[in-house]
């Protein structure tokens, strides 16, 4: 139960690592060390399955429960329909590893669970194949997730979670309330790093959803967001991993906070009725991304067919029910059981009140912002 | 003679090799990374000294370490004094109780503090149930919780050197002072206390130096607000993959610790304080 979301952390960390590597800020040794530290270093050598038969498809994700779920929801159904064996490799398809594999000429992966940032970088570097949108259906993707070298596969959001029982009469309705300690007392939790956090601090100042990243694109905008955290820091406990955020709510250490929707998915079942709620108002949606390495063993068409198959709304809905990774296909929302709809980051109601995570902004501003963020919390 | 020396070296060689391969060499690499990533030169060190966050982190670290040391020395002194001079019959039991926490990992002890100090932890629940407080107190995720838990971890490091020192002090001195008409307190202050100062110094130094590099307890009980240097290094490397700055800060911490030892060496005999503990 607890190992299934750390991969998201890994995804993000690996993305950053790959990014640094690309920018030349991290040497190859540094990258490998970082990967090893994250536990995503290759467990299998490259080239082992270089001559795999075309009747087999290797899907790579970040391991844990998510690997089992992909096997169950996508793998077995795909085999039943096409006869093609689906092998799940949970060793973590970081951008660095995909790059190393393609450059070494011994590609053994067909479809990889990556992120938009990595997808763009890998595509530009010529490491991945363009998505064939004559096979993969753009209409079955959340708008804005149909990149040239990758397409969305599922979504998780940074959301406003609360414990209504602890909060009593003062229930925060939006980010402005969360950053108002006077009227809404209690401890809050935010992520240790700025990802998904500065957005909510900007919304708290009354900035409209569509203007958030515009405002954050100026030095003043970033400073204003950081200032919000400085003001309430005596009431802040930070979370590093998803499991930490989960624990803070379980142990009633915090009464509100900005956490991953996938953790909220677990918490809603673990906490008593009436002591956990989530608001997608002002959430930040972060899409996972399928990428296909260049010269993948099963061939381009097979990989595209699998991606198209995985778009099926009923599979996407099932995927969400089992693990909380929200459907990327808008049509899947109606198939999610009614009782779970309000927890679904990509239900039409919830999408309307959220923004899409902006990778370009992070590529440009993250490092400087992180430094200011840490300083605001401790100094 | 020559062969004897060679033999000693051969005996020490395996341990020495392990140290060089797994300790010295990685350490040299850390220094190297701090000077080469992302670019050759002192860029990381310049960035470090300019960074307010790093400065604050160092201030927090030295403050927490100093607080921990003062409290440990005070409590430890009383504890060591009682064990050596007062409750003699129960001495083996008391020494065992000082040593016992050593056998439980720091991680587990820190988690135990979380269970105790949490918002709905044992302490808060008990206080509320007997009507002492209405709302839960903030006992952790702040400096109070960190220092409390660190004192718990560090106390044996203060008690043991002081106890060793006190056991070597002849009671006859104090008794002579008493016989010459000194009050009990004067005898303690003028005769006993000065003799225990080497033990106090060695205990304090040990606790302070260990506290400077402490990671687990502040990370678990600090809630991200009590960001000590070792945690900030982890932050840089794991969260931001900023190896250059992370290693530069770790070199700075090492240098700072060395400076503490050098300054201490002017007042304390380091060799006897840290190495000889009889």
Question: How are the SSEs placed, and which strands pair?
Answer:
The complex is a heterodimer of chains A (about 375) and B (about 280).
Chain A: H1 6-23, H2 28-38, E1 56-60, H3 65-82, E2 85-89, H4 95-104, E3 111-114, H5 116-124, E4 146-147, E5 150-162, H6 164-167, H7 175-178, E6 188-191, H8 198-203, H9 212-216, H10 219-232, E7 236-239, H11 242-250, E8 256-260, H12 261-270, E9 277-291, H13 300-309, H14 313-323, E10 326-327, H15 338-341, H16 348-352, E11 355-356, H17 359-378
Parallel strand pairs in A: 1-2, 1-3, 6-7, 6-8, 9-11
Antiparallel strand pairs in A: 3-9, 4-5, 5-8, 5-9, 5-10
Helix pairs in contact in A: 1-2, 3-14, 10-17, 11-12
Chain B: H1 2-36, H2 43-50, H3 52-86, H4 91-99, H5 106-117, H6 122-129, H7 143-167, H8 171-179, H9 184-212, H10 216-221, H11 229-239, H12 243-267, H13 270-275
Keywords (chain A): Signal
Protein name (chain A): Putative spermidine/putrescine transport system substrate-binding protein
Pfam family, one (chain A): SBP_bac_8
Write structural notes for this entry:
The complex is a heterodimer of chains A (379) and B (278). Chain A is an alpha/beta fold. Chain A folds into 2 domains: 6-155 and 287-356, Periplasmic binding protein-like II (D-Maltodextrin-Binding Protein, domain 2), CATH 3.40.190.10; 157-285 and 359-378, 3-Layer(aba) Sandwich (D-Maltodextrin-Binding Protein, domain 2), CATH 3.40.190. Chain A contains 17 helices and 11 strands. Chain A has helices at residues 6-23, 28-38, 65-82, 95-104, 116-124, 164-167, 175-178, 198-203, 212-216, 219-232, 242-250, 261-270, 300-309, 313-323, 338-341, 348-352, 359-378; strands at 56-60, 85-89, 111-114, 146-147, 150-162, 188-191, 236-239, 256-260, 277-291, 326-327, 355-356. In chain A, strands 1, 2, 3, 4, 5, 6, 7, 8, 9, 10 and 11 form an 11-stranded mixed beta sheet that branches. In chain A, strand 4 (146-147) and strand 5 (150-162) form a beta hairpin. In chain A, helix 3 packs antiparallel against helix 14 (313-323) and helix 11 (242-250) runs parallel beside helix 12 (261-270). The longest helix of chain A has 20 residues, at 359-378. Chain A is globular and about 65 Å long. Chain B folds into 2 domains: 1-36; 51-275, Orthogonal Bundle (MetI-like fold). By secondary structure, chain B is mainly alpha-helical. The A-B interface holds A 13, 16-17, 20, 24-27, 30, 33-34, 37-38, 187, 192-193, 233, 236-238, 240, 251-253, 367, 370-371, 374-375, 377-379 and B 33, 37-38, 51-53, 56-57, 60, 114, 118-120, 141, 223-227, 232, 235, 237-244. Chain B: The chain crosses the membrane at residues 9-33, 53-81, 93-116, 144-164, 199-221, 241-268. Chain B: This is Putative spermidine/putrescine transport system permease protein/spermidine/putrescine transport system permease protein. Chain B: It is found in: Cell membrane.
